[in-house]
Structure prediction request, 55 residues.
Amino acid sequence: MYKVDLKYGTELSQKLGAELVVVSGKKHFSGPVDNEESCVELPQALDAVVDISRA
Prediction:
């Protein structure tokens, strides 16, 4: 399993002035890796977009 160090997400969120949302137990988001299933739904992202649109 591939894992991205949290420091990269933290750095990116700080540079963008964005909230970092960590969701555990999801598969690789950008597509299947080494024949593993990928993450095809991310309701937390939808919730964040809806919240931003209401602001």
Remarks:
- Residues 21-55 form one domain.
